[in-house]
Amino acid sequence: MSAERSLGGTAVAEKFAKIAVSDVTYWLDKPYAYRIPDEFSGKVEAGMRVAVPFSKGNRRSEGVVLAVTDECEWERPKPILEVLDSEPVMTPRQTALALWMRERFFCTVYEAVRAMLPAGLWFTKTGKRKVTDSESRFLRLAVPPEEALAAAAAKRSRAPHQAAVLELMSAVGEGMCSEIKLLTGAGAQTIKALIEKGLIEDFYCETFRRPEYREGAKSPLPQLNAAQSGVLDGLKPLLDGDEAACALILGVTGSGKTAVYIHLIRRALEQGKSAMLLVPEIALTPQLLQTMSSYFGEDIAVLHSGLTMAERYDEWKRIRQGLARLVLGTRSAVFAPCENLGIVIIDEEQDESYKSESAPRYHARDVALYRCAEEKALLLLGSATPSMESRYAAETGRYKLFCLTERYNRKALPSVSIVDMKQELRAGNPYGVSSFLRGELQRNIELGQQSILFINRRGASKIVTCGACGFSYTCPNCSVSLTWHSVGSRLVCHWCGYTRRVDACCPDCGGELKYIGEGTQKIESELGELFPNVPVLRMDTDTVTEAGSHEALLERFRREKIPIMIGTKMVTKGLNFANVTLVGVISADQSLYSGDFRAAERTFSLITQVIGRSGRSLLGGRAVIQTFTPENPVIKLAAKQDYNAFYRHELEIRRIQQCPPFTALTVLTVTGANEALVLRCCNEIKRALDAETSRTEGLRVLGPAPYPVVKVKNSYRYRITVAGARERLARPLCAQILQYFNNNKEFRGVSVYADLNPNE
User: Cα–Cα distance between 742 and 668 in angstroms, integer?
Assistant: First the structure.
């Protein structure tokens, strides 16, 4: 319906807003119509946030305006209570993206909006913005420089600070008040006196709180070899064209993919376009930012969760205002409000950290594909070990494929040795470091070269158990064993954070407790015994908790040439240290037998990537893989760094299993504190899905099945998987399941959510 109201005797058409409200669940999420009151006439636009009454109790809730219209299907719509933004915070394209995310990732529109906007833009419970705009006081001359210098000469003897300020400002014209006071030693009274005399004037300007980083020395664009030039020539038409495109660079570690990225970014910026470069780990951003600043100066913004709330908000504003046209960052940077997007580059595109594990459960690659399709931009994926899905898309023609088969400096890939740890146990080696790897480390120490050791587990020991009765410590909140951390002498659950002290003896039988398995802390301790007085650097989530600690640790490793760095997954990719000539994989089997269909792919990628950290200079490199299953084909192919052979081997297994890339998996997860009720809900969902899929060709229902860790934070987790060649067939069916079972009072206390192609 449309309506009119009388304003001063003149009929005025009423306006209505379609609003996505924050306090709704997925199954109730839809555009709600609200009336725009007279006092807000002309002040409400699409993309603004507003406060509205919601539900029967008219609870005050936030909402984002999706559209302003003359029509309303409701007879008496509620009025908007307050307009929270002075201008839209969402562009029409961003609003369309949020609506698309709702349909694809089973999230609410407001969950998508929250993922897209910086946290500093949101409001506290008292209605204040979490981060306010920053302004700084500036000073400038109010008289010609000649007059200012004459006044300075007259004041030099009786007012030296005033003279110093005038002389400095005659040279620079204007500057930040705090810096001028610091350089001249002037105080507030000096500045006030000069303003009162009309010699200078002050004004306020918006300033940006930027993350600290080491700016690289200005450099010309990197030289490309013949192979890189060939890839660049093939990508230029895709970047310059008027249609969206997607390409994959399959390049061995050290082949110079970054140099190709730099040339493409320069080309996009010269065309007046913006660019994005995403990396999987926060630890990679400082090194990348320093490199990129040497080519692009201040025209860069960085977005990741390691920034302060104020820094992230200000970087978002710089992008939005067009002050930074190159965006560097991790997964969430894919939402950067870039205008005239030219290229999105996702480096190490196979990494699972590009997939969000909480609502909205999006994959950065999917969002980038959508944005590039809408904005006619180029999506470029790069990796030495692309995901099976991306490599298959290139093979079937959906993506363009470009290959770099040799390292940039024509150096050979590292030579790799496989060590059978069963033999080490038989030989009585008590350490997690094999005798062969110990010798290689000793050789590197003597040569003054550096080594990186990788083990994908933090802590000291995986479990603490009794050799007599078999008792082991488990988390009371989760179905996992507690991990022993020697630092702090605590047992820790890596899922919920529960901690406790270990007993002097077995609490069940009084027997002696055994510490089994290795983590980063234990290997660090063993290295201290094997190589006394040799510095060792540990890099895991226990050592990089503070903002900027990634950069500080890596800079220490580089600057002090620390002989050995041991770390978890964060040391496996993107790092480039010329003096690193040895890499050791402590336990290659750790991720290989997890029961996940992606286990082989994940293990191959991690091993290949970490081996690639070695020998990236003229010194050459070597690597050691320690394993209890040296004959496993994944281990052998990773040692050869033969991605193509692994891809063929794994693709055939996926074809037989009917797993991605041949099938899309939509997983319905059922959680709750009552395991019996969760299982009953799973069985009901299974029956409902079986009934529906029997009428839909191409869909299969798998499960219910428990997660590998079935209990987390006192909540049980089971899943039902809907598999089909096209996920859009399963999407409406899963949406109906979410709506029905989350509203079913029989299953109160049970939550159901959906995820497309999850990592786990």
Answer: 12
To 5 degrees, how large is the angle CA 515–CA 606–CA 706? 65
Q: What gap in Å lies between CA 374 and CA 368, rounded to an integer?
A: 10
**d(C-alpha 405, C-alpha 479), whole Å:** 44
Q: Phi and psi of 197, rounded to 5°?
A: -85, 0
Contact 554, 576 (CB under 8 A): no
pLDDT tens digits for range 300-348: 999 998 888 999 999 999 999 999 999 999 999 999 999 999 999 999 9
The DSSP symbol for 475 reads -
Q: Using CB atoms within 10 A of its CB, is residue 597 exposed (0-12), middle (13-18) or buried (19+)?
A: middle
- What residues are paired with 416 via a beta bridge? 623
Note the Cα 211 to chain centre separation in Å: 17
pLDDT in tens, 456-497: 887 777 789 988 898 999 999 999 999 988 877 889 999 999
Cis peptide before 53 (omega within 30 of 0): no
Number of neighbouring beta carbons within 10 Å of residue 704: 18
Residue 206 structure tokens: 């918006």
Percent of the chain with pLDDT over 70: 98
**What is the DSSP-derived secondary structure letter of residue 242?**
S
> Which residue reads 């600057």 in tokens?
559
Q: For residue 561, what are the CA distances in angstroms to 33, 81, 534, 544?
A: 63, 61, 11, 19
Rg over CA atoms, the chain: 30
Residue in 575, 582, 564 with CA at minimum distance from that of residue 621:
582
Task: Please tell me what DSSP assigns to residue 71.
Answer: -
Report which of 559, 231, 579, 215 is spatially closest to residue 408, judged by C-alpha positions: 231
Do the strands 490-492 and 715-724 form a parallel or antiparallel pair, or are they unpaired? unpaired
Cα–Cα nearest to 385, from 661, 608, 613, 652 = 608
* Tally of CB atoms within 10 A around 641: 21
Residue 411 one-letter amino acid: K
What would the DSSP string read from start to end of 144-167?
Answer: -HHHHHHHHHHHTTT-HHHHHHHH
Q: What angle do CA 530, 534, 535 make, to 5 degrees?
A: 120
Contact 262, 295 (CB under 8 A): yes
- Residue 206: other Cβ atoms inside 10 A: 11
Cα gap 641→644, rounded to integer Å = 9
Residue type, 460: A
> What is the signed CA dihedral for 396, 397, 398, 401, rounded to 10 degrees?
110
Position 3 scores a pLDDT of 53
- DSSP conformational letter for 482: P
Per-residue pLDDT at 11: 45
Cα separation, 594 vs 600, in Å, equals: 9
Beta strands 32-35 and 16-21 are antiparallel
Name, in order, each residue with C-beta under 8 angstroms of 689's C-beta and a sequence gap of 6 or more: 701, 720, 722, 733, 737
Return the pLDDT at 400. Answer: 97
Spatial CB neighbours of 559, under 8 Å, sequence gap ≥ 6: none
Q: What H or E segment, with its residue span, contains residue 499?
A: strand 499-500
Alpha helix ranges (H) inside 615-663: 633-640, 643-657
**What integer pLDDT is reported at residue 5 of this predicted model?**
54
Q: Which amino acid is at 695?
A: R
Angle between helices 633-640 and 599-611 (to 10 degrees): 30
The pLDDT, as a whole number, for residue 6 is: 47
| Cα distance between residue 294 and residue 292, in whole Å | 5
Confidence (pLDDT) at 547: 56
- The residues that bridge with 248 in the sheet, in sequence order, are 381, 401
Asked if 340 and 273 count as a contact pair (C-beta separation under 8 A), the reply is yes
With a cut of 70, which residues of the chain have pLDDT below it? 1-12, 545-548, 574
**d(C-alpha 280, C-alpha 349), whole Å:** 8
What number of CA atoms fall less than 13 Å from residue 320's CA on the CB side? Answer: 17
CA distance 437 to 419: 8
